[in-house]
């Protein structure tokens, strides 16, 4: 992948990182926390976990932006700079010092009840997220929680969901099928002893022909819902209404926004060979640009969900409390536009299936 450095990021606070079998993965502007900044995060997290029942407490969600204003000034300035960047698809915060001994075992499945007291990584993930927008969840995912557990599940080892482990999780735009999908996806690494890579490719790195961009910018595709949102909890997409026609690329010259899922984006018309060829060219290009990034405990990765696709390499899960464990949060730039999905300032869970 190409190495692009945002000129807005102070060079003393930025770094590149991540390598893997696909070659160097270096599009990530990185903010490295100092020891003092890491301690400040811990102090804020302790205060939050003492004052509120859990990270899901509506009072905390309402107050989160106030707490976020107490984050280190350099970090806040940097997040604002990358938020306003012209084409940055992902960015990372590193150096939050976590002690594994202070953390509970990796759960065998997502936790239906949030941690009491709240864990420092999930508190920080929300606070970083609200500097980008507003956090929200889904009625059909993880019991409607706002902060998700990304852990391997014995029952889902070979699924195309974040609970899989034995198979590669195909690259995708998060919730590509939904008109109100997240603008940003935030991940906090709690534990990753096997150094399982997250895979990434950014829109700005893709080299597509002009004709392919034009075809992908036309509504000639369907974004089928993935099974993690299925009302029946199965592969039966018949449980959903027919997906609308959709564009894969949008914006000026098809270069502003990418929405695609390796496994769930299909051509609307089986006889549309031109659209099929364009989609295949895009898939090949993404595969050629896909790089690996290993998240370490205390790393926070934010993905611009309109400029970046992501996935995960397969790994052998042990299911013994020591497996990879990430926290995940979805962020919207504009909470009000999600009213059709049932989201309000006080109700942050979105409907996956919209009323027709």
How would you sum up this structure in a few lines?
The protein has 356 residues and is α+β, with helices and mostly antiparallel strands. It has 6 helices and 17 strands. It has a single domain (11-206, 292-350), classed as Clavaminate synthase-like (Double-stranded beta-helix, 4-Layer Sandwich), CATH 3.60.130.
Detail the topology: elements first, then pairings:
Elements: E1 29-32, H1 35-51, H2 58-68, H3 73-83, E2 90-94, H4 120-130, E3 134-138, E4 147-150, E5 169-172, E6 184-191, E7 197-202, H5 210-216, E8 221-223, E9 245-246, E10 249-250, E11 257-258, E12 265-267, H6 273-289, E13 291-294, E14 300-304, E15 308-312, E16 325-332, E17 349-350
Parallel strand pairs: 1-2, 3-17
Antiparallel strand pairs: 2-14, 3-16, 4-16, 5-15, 6-14, 6-16, 7-13, 7-15, 8-9, 8-12, 10-11
Helix pairs in contact: 1-4, 2-4, 5-6
Would you mind describing this structure in some detail?
With 356 residues, the protein is α+β, with helices and mostly antiparallel strands. The chain has a single domain, classed as Clavaminate synthase-like (Double-stranded beta-helix, 4-Layer Sandwich), CATH 3.60.130.10. The chain has 6 helices and 17 strands. Strands 1, 2, 3, 4, 6, 14, 16 and 17 form an 8-stranded mixed beta sheet that branches. A 4-stranded antiparallel beta sheet has the order 5-15-7-13, covered by helices on one side. The protein has a 3-stranded antiparallel beta sheet with strand order 9-8-12, covered by helices on one side. α2 packs across α4 and α5 packs across α6. The chain is globular and about 60 Å long.
